[in-house]
Amino acid sequence: MKKSKKVTKRGLILSIVTYAIFILVYWTSFYELYTLCKLGRVHNNIAVLMGCLVFFVAWFIILIVRIVKKPAVEEEASVDVKKSYSRPKTIWACSVIIIIVLITGFYGLKIYNSSINFNGKLSWVLHDLKNKRSVEFEHNNIYQNGIDGIFTDINKNNQMPKKLYVSSNFSLTFDSYGKITSFDTYLYAKNTKGKLESYLISYDSNKSKNITLYLNGYVNANYSDDKLLEPLIKTMKVIPLKKTVSSWNEKQYGILYSGKRSFGYNSAGIVNINSKGIINPIVNTSSEIIGYTVSVYVPGEESKYTPVRYNLTDGSNNIKAAEPSKVNKPIFDQSYNASDEFYLSKQVGYRLEVTAAAAGSRSYSLNVTKNGGRTWNTLNADPFASKLGTAAGITFINDKLGFLCLSNNGGAKGQLYRTEDGGISYKVVNFPDIQVALKGAGTYNPFDLPGMPTEKDGSFNVLVTQGSDGDYNGSSKALYQSKDQGTTWVYIKEVAKN
Hints:
Layout: H1 2-39, H2 42-68, H3 72-76, H4 79-113, H5 121-131, E1 132-136, H6 142-145, H7 148-154, E2 165-175, E3 180-190, E4 196-204, E5 210-215, H8 230-238, H9 241-246, E6 252-262, E7 270-273, E8 279-280, E9 290-297, E10 308-312, E11 341-343, E12 349-358, E13 361-369, E14 377-380, E15 390-396, E16 402-408, E17 413-419, E18 427-428, E19 436-437, E20 443-444, E21 449-450, E22 454-456, E23 459-465, E24 477-482, E25 490-495
Parallel strand pairs: 7-10
Antiparallel strand pairs: 1-5, 2-3, 2-6, 3-4, 4-5, 6-9, 7-8, 9-10, 11-12, 12-13, 13-14, 15-16, 16-17, 17-18, 19-20, 21-23, 22-23, 23-24, 24-25
Helix pairs in contact: 1-2, 1-4
């Protein structure tokens, strides 16, 4: 009896110690799993998680062996001795189960929260699994395949609508042999069911041999014919690209297309070309130059080499660039102002020019014309203070006060910039945080992509949207107001999406 009692007591102590170790490892594994989902620290977490996995496998193997082969001493122990230790074992077993359930529930909820609303790395991974596509880039020579080659490869497994619109720009670089080294653009269209589809497309030969395609992002779709993609494809088929860049004798060249745009009365670098490739001289520079222009340039050397801007002057399918002699639209018509271009008057205009582009992001300079577009000068070489992104708005209230917006993460969020010296310098505008409750726990601010401020009765108003990742309350907007010309802002109310 004495021996049996000693063995049973030792078994109870051993059980407490081993299950305490099990709980510690179980907590460690869930903590590491949570930090992996939240922060994505793969190198920091995987080693620990693998160690925990090995422990659990060894634990269950030992457990199965012990069930199959019970110790002889335990079988010989008297019924009274077993009963004396059955209650502590039961209490301890219940405690272990409760602790495991609490750990599972606590970290399970945290892991779930990291998978929604872009609260953690897991949400980005799930978003990529749903929306990210990788396409093998085979037709990668601009001389041989033109722009068509890009969409030939994409449409193999991801059929895009024929009528596509450019949200901002189509930017591409290639080397002297015609090999495409990078490009990025943000396109949108209506599918066969009439629903909006968006495509954030990028490629960088230094990072991958494949084209990266992101679907279902946020885009301000107005379906304007001024932003049609087809004129780019048509123009690229007829322009003498290789001959154009050979005169520059550089290693890298670029192509930029922003849809139909105005160059004011400045004809420098403008080349009219028809659908047969016949180049026509500009015969009337007294009229404003507007057209579907494709700019060919040397990246970073625009001041050394004047970009050649090919303006398609005819075409089929009702896509026709306006010839300079037939344009009557005034440069200061506000309906023509775009996300990267604004005209304050017939003589004064502002334009954000791309200075570098890579993987969906761009850097810009702010250029100004004071003679109706005849000449443009750099007003601010870096208005966004080295920040990269996509131009999401430009406006001037007067010749001193103006605003710019730079979006990033595919239009997921953005930052508003304010100038009070006519664009010479800009400062970041800060908006008061609006915290809304998550379904699980915690709060976040869904409003993070500002629009352009407008003035009314001495007050400035701005609507801040939720960007491409916003799904709170029907993608509603936040209305802010300023009484000091946009220096400080106060939250007014939530506005339903129109």
